[in-house]
Design brief:
The structure holds two protein chains of two kinds. By secondary structure, chain A is an all-alpha fold. Chain A has four helices and no strands. The chains are: A mainly alpha, B mainly alpha.
């Protein structure tokens, strides 16, 4: 139990230090050099994409590009043409395109 | 966004209970650490009998990405009193960062392109605190509910989809230029490769760092202009030789 609380307090201190790392010096960051500004500008798209893409494409910790849940409009509604949800059976394969219809050989 | 974190909060509350660490550990983690994925990692490590040091390192490496958020928000908050910034730091999460930076960047862009001036701190701070405090309260309530439910929590909670969809909605407006598109593509791609390679929670950090560098390089390259307007921007002859 003590071990757990030592870990909680230390992890809390470490996490707080990282959260406030740059906020503490924000008053000196009003006029940052152009190169730093250029790097800072990339943080929102880079970080958000780094959160979103793996979470969408490998939701259960393995790669799965076929996402019927993304294509479904409503639980009861008919699926759109070309985006027919397949039952998840058999060996897992990558479904990169519509299973039939336009573009299929 | 609030609904998306509910199942996650329930799990953060229930996991330490289910693994025998106790509900006080759940609540301690949620109030003192207050960062979902790292709480689960620390609880898992402790439940496996790891030392406190291992749990702390696991939690802190996952939370390294918060430094990026801190750096990204800081220039907008230069005029904010230190005490307020310290409180903002405690409340800093993926969600609070994402909604705030999206709005503040858009406001600054509108002003830079001749639109109305960006609202001042009297608008920025309530926006941040509104989002961050709502998330904090939601997280604490869900943690307590998770503690009460404990191991009765079903395994099939939809943990995996609500959260990325919300961030996807915020990613789209973040892509405002070709360099930002490069940053997003490289950031998402490297994070995916890192996750495939087994980097687990650190994949977000690796992806973000790679995307930042790629976006900055793309901006630098695009700024040099096309090869045709050499009259105004003669290419630096040393550039290509130096890269050989």
């Amino acid at each position: 139990m003590n071990e757990a609380w030592v870990a909680i307090v230390l992890a809390g201190i470490g996490t707080y230090a990282m959260r406030t790392s740059f906020l503490v010096f924000a008053h000196r960051l009003a006029d940052v050099p152009p190169l730093v500004q250029r790097l800072l500008r990339q943080i929102p798209p880079a970080a958000l994409a780094a959160i979103v893409i793996p979470a969408l494409v490998r939701p259960h910790d393995h790669l799965d590009l076929w996402q019927p849940r993304l294509c479904r409009r409503s639980p009861a509604g008919p699926p759109r043409p070309g985006l027919v949800a397949r039952p998840r059976q058999g060996p897992r394969v990558l479904h990169l395109g519509p299973p039939r219809g336009a573009g299929a050989p | 966004m609030l609904i998306g974190v509910i199942p996650f909060g329930l799990v953060a509350g229930a996991t330490p209970v289910a693994t025998g660490l106790g509900g006080d550990v759940s609540i301690g983690l949620s109030t003192i650490v207050f960062a979902g994925a790292s709480q689960l990692a620390a609880a898992d490590a402790l439940a496996d009998g790891a030392s406190a040091a291992v749990a702390v390192i696991a939690a802190c490496t996952i939370n390294l990405r918060l430094m990026l958020y801190s750096a990204s928000l800081a220039p907008f908050l230069a005029a904010v009193p230190l005490r307020t910034r310290l409180l903002m730091g405690y409340l800093l999460t993926d969600q609070a960062y994402a909604v705030s930076i999206t709005r503040w960047t858009r406001e600054a862009d509108v002003e830079a392109t001749g639109g109305p001036p960006a609202p001042g701190l009297d608008h920025r701070l309530p926006y941040y605190f509104g989002a961050a405090l709502l998330l904090w309260g939601n997280w604490q309530i869900c943690t307590i509910l998770g503690v009460l439910v404990g191991s009765a929590l079903p395994d099939s909670l939809p943990l995996d989809f609500a959260i990325p969809l919300v961030f996807l909605v915020l990613l789209v407006p973040a892509i405002t230029s070709r360099p930002s598109a490069v940053a997003a593509i490289v950031g998402g791609g490297v994070a995916l490769l890192a996750a495939e390679a087994g980097a687990s929670h650190l994949s977000v950090l690796f992806g973000a760092l790679a995307g930042i560098v790629a976006g900055a390089i793309a901006e630098t390259v695009l700024e040099r202009g096309t090869p045709y307007d050499t009259d105004e921007h003669p290419p630096d002859p040393g550039l290509w030789r130096g890269e050989a």
